[in-house]
Amino acid sequence: MSYRMKLFQDELARCIQRLHKEGWLPNENMGEASVRDTETGQVTISIKPGTIGVTDPAAYFGSDMPIVDADGNYITHHAPAHDNLPLHLAIYKARPDVTAIAHVYPLWTTLFTNKKQGLPFVLAEQLEASCNVTCVQSEPADTDEYRQEVVDALADQICVMMYNGGIICAGNNVDNVINYIAWMESVAEKIALAELIGEVKTITADPIDLVTEGYEYTVDTNYKTYQDYDQILFKEEVARGTRMLNEKGYSPSGESGDVAVRDLKTGLCYISGSPAWCFQKNLRDARGWERFICDAQDNIFTPYSEPTCEWIMHTAIFRKRPDVGAIVQTHGRWASVFAILEMDVPLDLIGEGLTGVIPCTPYQSAGGSGLAEVIADGLIDSDYVLMGHHGAVIVGKTMDEAMAKTAWMEKACEKAFYAILCAGGAKSSLAKARETYSK
After folding, report:
1. Pairing of strands 360-361, 384-387
2. Architecture of domain 3-197
3. Which fold would CATH assign to domain 229-437?
4. 159, 354, 365, 391: least CB-packed within 10 angstroms?
């Protein structure tokens, strides 16, 4: 066996172990994964369950994994391949861009597959992953016809849902595929919860604006730009905030959401970089040197860094809120439920003696100046605003203050959700909920 083959076996074992650790593969009978070497066409796939006496996916090693060629002929003979090998090979044949596949049975997407439904496009973050997730209508079968139906339903997307068959996510590396699973499951959960208290409406798949198109770079490419000690600290601070988005559950997929900090002395703004540009496995990998630097007038100082698509929203907020030193843009569960419905969060329902609402703005396309101005205006008199069909934006003097406010806001949204649900949910009205919980 070549060393290259061993590397792909080890990569697949890492994939299976991460799937198990994160709860997507609780046992070896509830899914499988594979990786493809594009140079040789060889596919390394999960072992057939129950064949080597190891039943815990966490105990798998690379050397356990069988390797086949593009036609399914064994390169290694020490262990049999998973029964779903023909399905993986069919996807690889149809999708030359795909080098990793994971098949699992998550909770929330299963609620949709049980009804033979795909995921409606209701959150702007879906555009970054897949806004056209369809569901295969047939029962799983070991036939070429069924496998072709899966391939056709997947098309050029990153996910396909299967009636009584879980979901398959496909991508160009193991970590992206696992992030896609988390992304789809998070979206499915938010939609299912929103449907309990309101009417879910779809949005149009407008393209995300090119983030730096039309803006001039003001310095040459230099990775040591702004490397004095103060500036290093600000870059590390925005990297810390970016990591916290995933660590605290405000970016379940590990690829959505962003933060910014501003040096109130120099006016420089430090903003999350694009995860794709940074080659991050997820936001937990964020590092200071990758951060994007500009000023509140949108002058760019780090041409080697590609920013989050919402960077002009951050600068618009900084312009209209000179007191703000940190911004957090999240895709947390409970804020997203209200964002899907474009519903203000009624604070009189959360049991803290508050009045008023956390306002929700109308939907605007991601990355555009329209969204930037609407959100910035919404934050002139508030430190919280929900972005219709997006998520939420929270501001504070420091990153820790903004994160603390984010935690409070998520809990407030959760309390309001259950108050509305217990008062009748979608079959009732907000007025009835207020009547029930204000007595």
Report:
1. parallel
2. 3-Layer(aba) Sandwich (3.40)
3. L-fuculose-1-phosphate Aldolase (3.40.225)
4. 354
